[in-house]
Design goal:
The protein is an alpha+beta fold. Helices cover about 55% and strands about 15% of the residues.
Length: about 290
Amino acid sequence: MRFTEIGQQLRAYRLESGLRAEEIAARLGVSRAALYRYEKGEVIKLDTIKRLAELLKISPLSLLGIGVEYYNRPVGYLERIRQVEETADQILMVNGPLCYLTTSDSYDQALAAVFEEAAEVAGVDRGSARAAAEQVLGILSARKRMYSMRRPGIIAMVPASRVRAVLEHGIAAGLQVSDRTRRMCREVAATEVGNIATMMEAEPMGLQFGLVQAADLNGGFEILRARDRATLAMNPFHADSSPFGAPGVAMITAADEAIAAHQRVAESLWREATKGAAAAADVRRLVEAGRPR
């Protein structure tokens, strides 16, 4: 058994469950420090794995990294993706409209403001909402820091239909905010889409964007490749999804057949995608068409 990977999945599922570390430790009859050691990769007994799986309401096989991992909340999925990105050498993305790892700091600042206001509008308990938002924002920040240090290669396919949508509605389109904040969300979206156009023109080392003109896709996915394994992630939770309980099911698997099928789709889309200066020009036209008249 790979105890480091078991520990990583334990942490992701713990965040997914919404239970505090001390709650799980108390039910297991161990200290919180012991639970954290399990999460860091300390040897863990099979009986303990079974008991943890019961507490977290998952299959023991999920903790062992066998089969498909399912996540119903953004925080669990984002934590798991953060872990996979720590060793990824290449990330192939088919989702859009933005690539979170390459967004600016202004995007994160806007997201924090949106989460805070959205919680008040929705009437969510302020303390719980703030804690949920801080968890998600902390994980996102850690992902961006890791990317800046490691610089895995990224190939991102951005559907034009989703670019139009984010320009029209702004980031965090699923959250209810004031008209003033919604305008700010649209401004941030236009800036980030413009940054994508700049990267398309510059074609920096290890970073490629393609604009997909085909009809909207039926769901986004990522293939993350490390030296010894590949991982497929199918994700309804974007970085700007509500941290307070947006419904959805994200899936992560290392199954060869699933990865191969999605790789074929990605390769087909990449062949047809517009790239380089031509793509940048198309993206800038989308930004201009989306400006208020």
